[in-house]
Amino acid sequence: MSSSPAPPLRTRAFRLLLSLYPGEFRDEYGRELALVFADRYRDAPTAWQRALVWVEAIGGVLREAPREHMHVMMQDLRFAGRVLLRTPGFFITALLTLALGIGATTAIFQLIDAVGLRQLPVPAAHELAEVRIVGGNGGFGLNPGSYGQLTRPVWNEIRAHQEAFSGVFAWGTRELRTGQGADLRRASGIDVSGELFSVLGIRPWRGRLLQPEDTAAPCEASRAVVSYAFWQAQLNGRELTPDTRLAINGTLHDIIGVTPPEFFGLAVGERFDLALPLCAPPSARREVFDIAVMGRLRPGWTIARASAHLNALSAGIFEATTPTGYSAAATERFNAFRLAAYPARSGVSRLRTQFDTSLKLLLAISGLVLLIACANLANLMMARATARAREVAVRLALGASRTRLVRQFVAESWVLALLGAALGVGLAQVLSRVLVWGLSSDSVVLSLTVSWRVLLFAAAVAIGTCVVFGVAPAFRATHIEPTEAMKTGGRGLSAGRDRLAVQRSMVVMQIAVSLVLLVAALMFVRSFRNLITFDPGIRQDGISIAYLGFPARRSLPAEQINDFQRQLVAEIQSVPGVRNAAMTSNVPLLGSSWSHGINLDQRKWWARFTWVSPSYFDTVGIPVLRGRAFTPQDTRSSPRVAVVNQEFVRQLVPEGDPIGRTFETQPEPDYPATRYEIVGIIPDTKYNSLRNDAEPMAFAPDSQHPRIGSWAAIMIDSSGDPSSAIGAVKRLINQRHPDVFAEFEVFKSRIHAGLVRERLLAILAGLFGVLAAILAMVGLYGLIAFAVAERRHEIGIRIALGADAGQVIGMMMRDASRLLIVGLILGIGASLWATPTAATLLFGLEPHDPATLIGACLLLTIVTAAASFIPARDASRLNPIMALRQE
Amino acid sequence: MSPRRAAPADDSPESYLPLPRDTFHILVSLADRDRHGYSVMLDVAERTDGALRLSPSSLYASIKRLLGQGLIEELDERPDPRNDDQRRRYYRLTRLGRRVATAEALRLQRLLSDARATGLLPKRAQ
After folding, report:
1. How far, in Å, CA of A320 to CA of A746, rounded?
2. Could you say which of A33, A63, A74 has the minimum Cβ distance to residue B60?
3. Which of A406, A485, A600, A821 is deepest in the core (most CB within 10 A)?
4. A392: confidence class by pLDDT, cuts 50, 70, 90
5. How many CA atoms lie within 13 A of A441 on its CB side?
6. Whether the Cβ atoms of residue A871 and residue A785 lie closer than 8 Å to each other
């Protein structure tokens, strides 16, 4: 061939095409293929047939080349499988390490997928958009429910004027009670506008779903749709008839239909039981932001265009729905709200908001643990490669191509990575469910399915791990001189420190990364500990909360309702085991809040407002520092009085004696401007969350509440176990007031349930941190043990020349300590760089907390010292005669 | 393509059956004389009146497999007397290859007589 003239262009082009084949096949049959192609080309009589020859050639190569590759790959994989099975100990260790690493990472990704990435199970979910106020409403008006963004009058305006959506709907969440008397049960409800089901494209499973007629005026909320799960569980899956009725909040409703099983509502992680018609009469309250509005974008409309359109409509919409009874400034703030559209393909989710950052952080953490595990595997693979140096040398000498050898080594990693990933995905199913179970303070409903994203993720992780732990050892293993390897009797590749450089740098990396993980672990554990041991200034032990409702007395005058409330408090106080009890308009530390704008002289500020019965401060253990607490003499007709906290004084009365000063609340609907006299001062206590800083707080007597409702939240202080007090109170209420429905909670459990995110982070970060330290320990142990084995000869000579055990141990430990120091320095740098991302998740400590950093370094130093001492001690016990004889 | 029968447990010709279409045609083509790749292609095309046109790629994929299975063997390179002076690799049926091809032919024959017996094909005097 070499003497023949340059081949024609088409032959060269065809040879280029042949490069798609694996090298072996090309070497074997490339020339033949080119010759046959040339023959056919020459024998084709017309240009058309010659073109056909090309088409056939290209088609053939495109069809056959992948098969050949597959064939070679299968061969490599089978070979790799056989090689791996020869060392089952290594195989199982490596497989389990990978399965655990990939499983943990995938489990967390699966949660992220379920909470945030997956689309709503409705047709064309990508067309959905939510209408919200840009930047939120800043706490304006009342904000009940988890997903309230807009008021009902605003919804009416949007529906009437918008052009961006082919259909819009509104919805809100509400807690409901079904059944009557002793059968009263909690149910989660959604109020939906009649358009919701048709715009989402939800078809009824049974009966019919709510339609626009159901929510048109006069909008009698006497019909309801149930979810499939509720239908199965509470209605036993019975066919619906016109007589299928259910008491909801005390009123009988016709159950007209059932939604399909896959429809859980619009809130990911939650599940609705009942859907009721959302009524939005023109008289609807203008300051209650209790609904969310979504729509399907018209064809051709983008989020940006819809936002521009909504922005243009905003001024008109908000001016038409301005609530009355507010100050001019507040009204101006309302009128300045602007609407925009936001993608809503994944629905909304409280879980997402709450866990997004922490889950991503945990994903990063578990990824790092996997990285450390991979480094261990890589070191193991290198050790194996050393052991197989002779085999490699023989095969190279016999003419095997280096590429083929590399591929076979990589194939072993492939087998491990693929099997590890498969096991890992299986393991992730268990782990992610355990995680969700750990998350669910209340009813978290997540469908954890293995979506294509999860599989893709696991595959990407597997490929990544394979690259990390497989490729470098494969290249190292095959880059040896055959003669050299044969000469050293297969004991090793060119021995010495240089050859261990890769292993050493990997151990350094492991130490650095595990330091970062240990720092994270310590931070989150300490942060969680800070939270649960934190004193919010309110008694938590022994406190339980009773929520009592008496809708039958709704229409009584406020004074009579208040009398009844106080009667209930007095009755509860008399229950044996109950030390004290008090009513409050807002239970602290559980998330809800109530604020009013305040004017004090020229100062305009705001304060958290709570109306409480006289025994409140005693019940929850808040001392009155100055002045007085409330008394039964503070009545509806007596002057308005308030007890404020120190932060209130700092913000509003920085000078002079605050006792006796007055302030006025800014007017709001149902809450007219009212002048209060400060009669007492209490210390700063936490208001609605342990995490928040001190806020200005004002308390007023329950009797002076402008809007007394037919319910009461009563804090009960009991001497013994709160649950036994709850039992006694429950019996009392049932006996004396069968028309009052009651629900109870143990205060401390509820507060701790609210710390689920912190607990999750502390537990998982802690586990991962420990795992990382163990893996780094194993890695270092392996390296030092290996180095000892490599240096047997040298150590033997040293001992023979009189080195004592201490000197040998010192020599090996010095080596380890150098790695440790470099690893720690890198790790400290990485920690300082990485920890600020977790700042918002921490409580009571700074991200650059020196104690945490020093603690992690110490821990790691102890761990690595232990890991290197054992092989170093073994080295010192080496019998020099044996060691030298083996050479 | 995974070589399903890369190394049959028993070396009986039946264990290779049924043969893929292309494989059988290649074996038939090599039954009367040794051929190089292009010659096999031309022969197959001629015998099937152009109905089966093997592409060079699939031909050599089959050849590789047949070599691996020991059904054909490679001869020394020699020039194709009909064409040019380029040296070609020639292939020949092995004993096993011949037995396998025969077994496949018999299998097809039995199938054909079954089809005749059930009236699927018109009966024909032997």
Report:
1. 45
2. A33
3. A485
4. confident
5. 17
6. yes
Residue A200 predicted with pLDDT over 70: yes
According to DSSP, the residues that pair with A645 across neighbouring strands are A682
Instruction: Give me A604's structure tokens.
Output: 């305009």
> Rounded to whole angstroms, how far apart are CA atoms A60 and B58?
6
Record the tokens describing residue A516, joined without a space: 């970062």
- Please answer whether residues B25 and B105 qualify as being in contact, where contact means their C-beta atoms are separated by less than 8 angstroms: no
Q: How far apart are the first and last CA of chain B?
A: 40
Eight-state DSSP code of residue A469: I
Confirm or reject contact between B86 and chain A (CB < 8 A).
Answer: yes
CA-wise closest residue to A588 among A561, A619, A565, A563: A619
Question: Does the pLDDT value for residue A491 go beyond 50?
Answer: no
pLDDT for the residue A1? 42
3-class DSSP state of A277: strand
- Contact with chain B for residue A78, Cβ under 8 A: no
Phi-psi label, residue A452: left if phi above 0, alpha if psi -120 to 50, beta otherwise: alpha
Q: What is the mean pLDDT of residues B48-74?
A: 89
Distance CA A419, CA A115 (A): 27
The pair of three-digit structure tokens given for residue A600, joined into one six-digit string = 């004090």
Six token digits for residue A734: 């049932």
A702 vs A583: CA distance, rounded Å:
8
Q: How far apart are CA A325 and CA A331, in angstroms?
A: 9
> For chain A, what is the mean pLDDT?
87
Q: Is the pLDDT of residue A369 over 50?
A: yes
CA distance A170 to chain B (A): 57
ipTM of the shown complex: 0.84
Tokens of A786: 């290996």
Q: What is the pLDDT of residue B6?
A: 46
For residue A765, give both structure tokens: 């970060």
Cβ pairs bridging A and B (under 8 Å): 57
The Cα A372–Cα A772 span in angstroms is 7
Q: How far apart are CA A865 and CA A475, in angstroms?
A: 31
Residue spans of beta strands (DSSP E) within A28-125: none
Residue to substitute from A4, A39, A42, A78, interface B, most B β-carbons within 10 A: A39
Q: Residues 6 or more apart from A299 whose CB is under 8 A from it?
A: A166
Question: What are residue A341's phi and psi, to 5 degrees?
Answer: -100, 145
CA distances from B33 to A394, B58, B78 (A): 41, 21, 14
| CA distances (Å), origin A324, targets A321, A709, A757 | 9, 21, 40
Distances (CA, A) of A6 to A1, A3, A447, B85: 9, 9, 65, 16
Q: Answer positive or negative: Cα dihedral of A469, A470, A471, A473.
A: positive
Q: Tokens in use for A634?
A: 């503070």
CA A642 to CA A712: how far, in whole Å?
20
Closest Cα in chain A, distance from residue B25 (Å): 18
Mean pLDDT check: name the lowest of A92-96, A363-367, A540-544.
Answer: A92-96
Q: Enter the DSSP assignment of A91.
A: H
At A490 the three-state DSSP class reads coil
Report the C-alpha gap between A209 and A626 in whole angstroms. Answer: 60
**What is the spatial distance between Cα A188 and Cα A350, in angstroms, rounded to a whole number?**
15
- Chain A residues touching residue B89 (CB < 8 angstroms): 32
What's the predicted TM-score (pTM) here? 0.77
- Name residue, tokens 């925009």: A340
pLDDT above 90 covers a percentage of chain A that reads 40
Eight-class DSSP state of A63: H
Angle at which helices A23-43 and B56-69 pack, to 10 degrees? Answer: 130
Statement: residue A492 has pLDDT above 60:
no
Cβ-based neighbours of A445, under 8 Å, separated by 6 or more: A264, A269, A270, A271
Name which of A39, A68, A70 is nearest B38 (Cβ-Cβ).
A39
Backbone dihedral angles phi then psi of residue A598, each to the nearest 5 degrees: -135, 140
